[in-house]
Amino acid sequence: MKRYRTPIFLAVWAVVGLAALAVLMPSLHVARDGASPESRATMERREQAQLAEMEAYAAEEGYPDFDPDMAYSPSGADDWAEIERADDEWGSDATEAPAMAVQPELSPADGVAASTPSKQQSMNAGPAWAHPRSSAAPAAGFNQSQRMTADSASPHAGIIRQMKDPESAAPEQAPPEAEIDRILAGLKSASIAFNTPEEIPYGDSAVIELRMSATQAQSSLAADVRGAGAVETARVKFAKLMQAELTGLGFEIEAITPDTQAISGAEPTVWRWQIEPVRTDVQPLHLTLSARVKIDGESVMRSIKTFDKEIRVRVPLMQRVGDLVFGNLEIVCTLVLAPLAAVAWRKLRKPKQPVAEPPARVAA
Q1: Which of 14, 146, 151, 152 is placed for a possible disulfide with 117 were both Cys, Cβ 3.0 to 4.6 Å?
Q2: Domains and their CATH numbers in the chain
Q3: Where is the composition biased (Polar residues) (predicted)?
């Protein structure tokens, strides 16, 4: 009998262990999955009932694009946790929610004072799915604007609003063109004066000077311009940072001052360039003013005005002759050296005449 004592003892402990494991398995299943099968079945029934109420409310309020699949995410545990938190916040029943005083609120649509419903009215006015356990009827005298406010207080109101108009939730943004027009309309005007030479000899250079002032008169500004040629004045819009560019294919242009400068309110801002023509005849010259503005937080350059001018490039007579000679050096050499070569050749080919000998002297 003693030799069977140990196997019997082990068998008894095995049976006890299996029984304990069978008892603990449901608890382990609940701890692992987060809910028992009975709890999951209850949650599924609640979800189906609430989705049915949401569909009915959407049909009543005129939301034809309502999709029940968008009401909850595939992971139901997070959604049910959110619903339970909403239950704790709003109370387990409509009668449990404490009454709140109606506070005046400024309506953004018409700018007049409106009434914000209390939490009790919000629960009664909203659909059944706004509060899962509420079955009370809407309060008397509860108008449509208050119902909309109550619907917006529901944790699921955004779903229905996006079903009706998905773009309504996104904030309206002004088009870029309207933003640029608003910025340009807000720019102030300043006086400018610049000189333009009528004619520049080919090979020479000239200085173009532009002056801008927000306070100085155009006549006074024009008198301070240093440079040859007629001075032109105008009024242009300006920003804190302005850029002036001088361009022309017929000129070699060298900037003496920076292209982009900050505009002073007390002193004039001056740009200067030195230009030298590289082509003859009439050549165009372009002066462009641009303002640095901010669009959507980014600093960009915006062209304000362009002045198109023409400068005649004159070539002196001696320079024209020299250019003609040196530009056609082969032809000139041929025309000049060919006759000289012919004369030299003729002199070399001409036969020499014999020299006459003097007569011999006869002896006496």
Answers
A1: 146
A2: 38-164 (no CATH), 180-317 (2.60.40.10)
A3: 115-124, 142-152
